[in-house]
Amino acid sequence: MMDDKELEKLARTHNQPPEVPRDRMWEKIDAARSGRRGVLEPDFTPRRSPAFRIMRIAAGVAAILVLGVFIGRMTQWQPGPTPGAHPVPVAVHEVEAIDSDVKKDIYRLATRDLFSRADYLLTDFKVRSCGKDDLSEVPVWAGGMLVQTRLLMDTSVAEDVEMKNLLDELELVLAQIVGLSRDNCASDMAWIRQGLQERDTIDRLRTVSAGSEI
Amino acid sequence: MEERRLISRILAGDPAAERQLYDTHVDRVFRLAYRMTGDATWAEDLTQDTFIRAFDRLAGFRGEVAFAGWLHRVATSVILTGLRKRKRLQSVESVRDDLEWAEGTGPATDPDLKRSIDRAVGDLDDNHKLVFVMHDMEGYTHQEIATAMNAPVGTIKARLFRARQKLRDALNGPGLSMEME
């Protein structure tokens, strides 16, 4: 049986390289590189500062708190158990204990509120442009709304097929905006606008937020 | 430090710096390409592609590994892609027929045995062949190969073991001389 040394020795006879044609190869490399020197290929890795991440997380947390407070306020409409007693604020996890019809109303109102703000954001977004406008805040707002959209997708609101479709669409658009690439900003925005246009998303959000569906 | 300075100059558009870095590394890249292909013109093309791609993407070199390791990562990618493309165009048999023999340049070896090792190496799949060529023919370390192929050292060792095993099996076939002396 051949050992490793013997195998190595034998293998070295395989495809023994000739002298390296340095100059000939360099001529072609040099020709290919001329005109490209000093021009760097764009780095498509999204670069987001830690501050941006923190802002996104903060926006998400804030959105959950806002939803909690909103739901809490809605519960104040219920008649209290004792006349004159102060209404107790209700946190998100306590919504389970509320009467199901009231819950539905809460979720519908929260959805209407979300759609109304999404209408503003998307309308504003449609007229902005990459080079001219400061878009740094847009993904932050979209991130907050995305959290709320996903929360509402798990509620009774999504039992209605049309509402579910609208929430799905909104989730998609918001996720696209959150992931907006700085390097491909113009093409990403054009793509998002085209989607909004084709699905008539803003008008449908406006219809629901105006109250005609609820 | 010298290499970092060269890289900075290349990024600023200095062709002399490109040539200097090319001269430092071209021999190993070309030898590897030739060992893998057995075709001088093809090896030249692969070497040129490697350096053009490396220079074009130099801004992405962050220094996590040595420049030689990063360059060999580009080289192995170019070579394996080249081999895959060629395989789609030609049968393995015709590639083998194209191989040029450098008679008289290496140690004296039985021509049958030489042909056998060539055939056996040619029959290895590209990843095993690359590891075998880099380690046993060109003297790269396990770590260098691991960096170039972006794989753990253990994987490289396992591939080398498997490649050697396959070669031994192939060379132990009927009618082949196994005498080295």
Detail the topology: elements first, then pairings.
The complex is a heterodimer of chains A (214) and B (181).
Chain A: H1 4-11, H2 22-33, H3 50-75, H4 100-127, H5 138-153, H6 161-178, H7 185-199, H8 201-209
Helix pairs in contact in A: 3-4, 3-5, 4-5, 4-8, 5-6
Chain B: H1 2-11, H2 15-37, H3 40-56, H4 67-89, H5 92-98, H6 111-123, H7 126-137, H8 142-149, H9 153-171
Mean pLDDT of chain A: 74
Main sheet makeup of chain B: none
- The mean pLDDT of chain B is 81
Major pleated sheet of chain A: none
Portion of residues in helices of chain B? over 70%
Question: What is the oligomeric state here?
Answer: heterodimer
Q: Name the chain pair whose interface involves the most residues.
A: A-B, 35 and 52 residues
- Number of strand segments of chain A: 0
Order of helices and strands of chain B: HHHHHHHHH
Beta-strand residue fraction of chain A: under 5%
Total of DSSP H or I helical runs spanning 4+ residues of chain B: 9
- The CA-CA distance between the termini of chain B, in Å, is 47 Å
N→C terminal distance of chain A: 84 Å
> In one word, what is the shape of chain A?
elongated
The number of strands of chain B is: 0
Low-pLDDT regions of chain A: 41-47, 75-90
Structural class of chain A: mainly alpha
Query: Low-confidence runs of chain B (pLDDT<50, min 5 residues)?
Result: 91-108, 174-181
